[in-house]
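User: Can you model how iron/sulfur cluster sits in this protein?
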Amino acid sequence: MKSNKDFSDTLLDWNRSSNYRQMPWKGEKDPYLVWLSEIILQQTRVEQGLPYFERFKKTYPTVRKLADAPEDDVMRLWQGLGYYSRARNLHATAKHIAYELKGKFPSIYHDIVKLKGIGPYTAAAIASFVFGERQAVVDGNVIRVLSRVYGIAEPFDTTDGRKQFNELAQKLISADYPGEYNQSIMDFGAQICVPAKPKCGECPFADRCVAYKDNRQDELPVRAKRIIKKERFFYYLVLKNDKEIIISKRGAGDIWQGLYELPMIESAKPIRKNLKKTVSDHLGVACEILNYSNIYTQQLTHQTIQSVFIFVDGIDFQQTNINGAIRVPLKKLHTFGFPKVVHLFLSEISLL
Ligand code: SF4
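Assistant: Here's the modeled complex, given as structure tokens:
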């Protein structure tokens, strides 16, 4: 194995000679905008995140503008990106920076990582890109590259494994160009050392890569735990007349907090019988089911959501009083933020 210096030099050479796409946040020195881009890009493909970054930057060009925005507006702009706690934390931290830190973004890793919603990865990205601090980013891309080049078979999702990858990453990062190094290894993992079918034929580490030499690219990196997905069944009630519809806001402690949805019955199993009775019991009045949609399936990291939308009739719309629900004019519906699946359904029935 060649030296650590070779690793960072090779990576920087690759970066300087590659034609990787320029992105609006690359080279950015405003910590607010770097933070914004990093939060948007977590768990999100660049192609999907890019228009969101542009919209946020235009709507809230400064941390103060974001801090002063109503939460519903922030959530609506975030709609469709998923992992909505990111948006809530972004907003809460913007307020903290704008009011308590008097608009001054912390400038060292140690302080940045204390901000709500900013983990070690994002803090290292901001500290290195903006402030030139030698702090290595460690995300899925970095772990994949390091485990393959160095043949590390330690599971990365254990305490020991995480420690090992963090230490190696910190040892390898360039002292002179930490920001460029971090950007490069992330780009390299996204472009060359990709999860399936890495492009070893065009890789500058092929002469020393353990995975390539031993043909173990598919085995590395190693994950210890299998992700077991919980299945959830959401039955949404479409309660509307010609002018209004009933919606409700999702509360704390679950997915999609702060977004709006239709009144919903959650069931641990699919409801195959007595749907009318279940809905009537839930609403507290006898009602009719006019129709229902196909099943919409949404995969989240730890859960699979199956949603069905039920068109309900036979209730006194004006008198309906479902806990926490509000009646809104159909023409105002677009001003609320909805989870993807609800937004899709409402668009399909031409309400959005
Ligand atoms: S040789 Fe292949 S597996 Fe090894 S670092 Fe390069 S792309 Fe990844």
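A couple of observations from the model: The chain has a mean pLDDT of 92. The domain at 230-348 is CATH 3.90.79.10 (Nucleoside Triphosphate Pyrophosphohydrolase).
User: Helpful, thanks.
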